[in-house]
Design a protein that fits this description.
- With 221 residues, the chain is mainly α.
- The protein contains 6 helices and no strands.
- It is rod-shaped, with a radius of gyration of 28 Å.
- The termini are far apart.
Length: 221
């Protein structure tokens, strides 16, 4: 009679890979939905923002919507308010208006980038470790199977095929877990770079318009 040999270590490895897979697909679905939502918000905000009649209307629009570009605009308008406050020339607010506003926009872009990158390191870690976890389960399972076969004194194909095949499954599952994690990570990194480039482009245009408007207001005074 042939018994199926299952090592507790192999079972634990399979459960760990299953957990990796659940985490991967949860992040894939969440990040995919988030990328679609942010793209829609940025597209709508960028169009309506540049159609505004003046900075006051643009600022009101930035306060009423959400999204990376909207938060970037709010940070810029908030920095302008702090710069224009009477007696606000502390060390934090000392310097040229252009430089202060540019620094504020850069800080907000970095915050948005960190949010966009959340979860990507988890995908990278799963993509790089899952194959080795599966390989560990395979090696341990084969070792356990060979010990059991040696103890039984039988080495025919019917006895060997089951335990060895069962151990090799962990490598296959490890690879199957790693592939979507790596693909999702690469896609996430690419989309993050595109969003950052979009924010930097918007920041340059925002900086040019607001500084020009500030200089125009100063000339009137």
């Amino acid at each position: 009679m042939t018994a199926t040999i299952t090592s507790p270590i192999v079972s634990l490895t399979l459960w760990l890979l299953l957990l990796f897979s659940v985490i991967t697909w949860t992040l894939v679905i969440h990040k995919g939905w988030l990328q679609w939502r942010l793209a829609r918000l940025n597209r709508q905000f960028r169009q309506t923002f540049w159609e505004a009649a003046d900075l006051a209307q643009a600022e009101s629009l930035a306060k009423s919507v959400d999204g990376p570009l909207a938060r970037l605009a709010r940070a810029g308008f908030l920095a302008l308010q702090d710069i224009r406050k009477p007696g606000a020339r502390t060390l934090l607010h000392s310097g040229d208006t252009h430089d202060l506003l540019e620094n504020s926009l850069k800080q907000q872009i970095q915050k948005e980038q960190h949010q966009l990158e959340s979860g990507l390191m988890v995908l990278a870690s799963i993509g790089s470790t899952a194959p080795f976890v599966g390989l560990f389960g395979t090696v341990w399972g084969i070792m356990h199977a060979l010990q059991a076969i040696g103890a039984s004194g039988s080495a025919n194909l019917a006895v060997v095929a089951g335990p060895i095949g069962e151990a090799l499954i962990t490598t296959a599952i490890g690879i199957a877990t790693a592939v979507p994690a790596v693909l999702a990570y690469n896609y996430g990194v690419r989309r993050t770079r595109l969003y950052v480039a979009e924010m930097e482009d918007f920041a340059v245009s925002f900086l040019r318009v607001t500084v020009r408007a500030s200089q125009h207001d100063g000339d009137k005074q």
